[in-house]
Specification:
Elements lengths: L1 E4 H4 L4 H4 L8 E11 L6 E4 L3 H9 L6 E5 L4 E5 L5 E13 L22 E5 L7 E6 L7 E7 L10 H6 L1 E2 L5 E2 L2 H8 L4 E9 L4 E11 L8 E8 L32 H4 L38 E10 L4
Antiparallel strand pairs: 1-2, 2-6, 3-5, 4-5, 4-6, 7-8, 8-9, 9-11, 9-15, 10-11, 12-13, 12-15, 13-14
The chain binds calcium ion.
Protein name: Fibrinogen C-terminal domain-containing protein
GO cellular component, one term: extracellular space
InterPro entries: Fibrinogen-like_C, Fibrinogen_a/b/g_C_1, Fibrinogen_a/b/g_C_dom, Fibrinogen_C-term_domain
């Protein structure tokens, strides 16, 4: 069985199909076989090749398979999609596949088929170009699109505005996906977010917020974040209890926080700082010590953390 894609071959047969409103379609081609139909053929027509036969089937309402007899150059169209067949020399069967010509790209990791393994996949957020993301398909029923991951300190997170906007690191390893992509994904529908944290002893905890949104660059990637549940505590606040909810993104070179200083410098991190934050998951110093600039989630551990992961998934539909 081979695949025959009529769209790519259209140019060669344009003299035959010029009068058709051509629709691209993939066919399975089975050589040396003939259809044994249980119904009356839709049409029999003399043509010059199996490609022309496939094109005619493409453009014929209800045609799902066709038989091309090379010996008498006859194309026979059938309604059956999985017709019975028998061996026959000089004959070929063309069956429309159920695979669409262009597979629609998933809009986020939740649209990958059930049973898909965790790994790097291409997604295409609405009205955006395709990007590669790490899909976490094992944790918490899977379907999570990863926006940040750290586990060994190999990637520098003390970066500038444009770095955080475009993303950095390796998608399969430590990385920040990028604020512009985060916005592009989140604007598609309603999302939840999950923060996973791990200390240097291997203890883990998580925080889920059942609603997250991040605005565009004009709004300095302003964060909306509500609905905490989890085991790590709600550290998306500053020391005064001011929530990250409603805060804009701050980096070492772009101070949008409510501190008199620049929290991007103080905490060595790009983040939605208030004044500044108890959740410094992009902290620029990788150590188990609890420092103002280490990775930390203060409501869970008073020490520097080894691993972090931030992931988003559409809110469950009720
Ligand atoms: Ca400031």
């Amino acid at each position: 069985m081979i695949h025959l894609k009529t769209a790519f071959l259209l140019a060669y047969f344009s003299q035959f199909v010029a009068c058709f409103n051509f629709i691209s379609q993939i066919f399975d081609l089975e050589r040396n076989a003939r259809i044994i139909s249980s119904g009356t053929p839709i049409k029999k027509i003399k043509v010059n090749s199996e490609i022309e036969c496939a094109v005619i089937c493409s453009n014929t309402y209800k045609c799902c398979s066709s038989n091309y007899d090379m010996y008498i150059e006859q194309c026979t169209l059938f309604m059956e999609c999985s017709p019975k067949s028998q061996q026959a020399q000089e004959s070929q069967i063309l069956m429309k596949t159920h695979t669409p010509d262009i597979n629609p790209q998933p809009k986020d990791c939740s649209e990958l088929p059930p049973g898909t393994s965790s790994g790097v996949y291409d997604i295409t957020p609405a009205n955006e170009s395709t990007i590669s993301v790490f899909c976490e398909m094992d944790t918490d029923n899977g379907g999570w699109t990863t926006i940040q991951r750290r586990y060994d300190g190999t990637v520098d997170f003390y970066r500038f505005w444009d770095d955080y906007k475009a993303g950095f690191g390796e998608i399969a390893g430590e990385h920040w996906l990028g604020n512009s992509y985060l916005h592009a994904i989140l604007r598609q529908r309603s999302y939840q977010v999950r923060f996973d944290v791990e200390d240097f002893s291997g203890n883990t905890a998580y925080a889920i917020y059942n609603a997250i949104y991040v605005g565009d660059e004009k709004n300095n990637f302003k964060l909306s974040l509500t609905g905490y549940t989890g085991t790590a505590g709600n550290a998306m606040v500053d020391r005064d209890g001011t929530p990250m909810n409603g805060m804009m993104f701050t980096t070492r070179d772009r101070d949008n926080d409510i501190s008199t200083d620049n929290c991007g410098n103080i905490k060595k991190s790009g983040w939605w700082h208030a004044a500044c934050t108890w959740a410094n998951l992009n902290g620029g110093v990788y150590t188990d010590e609890i420092l103002i600039k280490s990775i930390h989630w203060i409501t869970w551990k008073q020490k520097g953390l080894k691993g972090t992961r931030i992931m988003i998934k559409p809110q469950p539909s009720f």
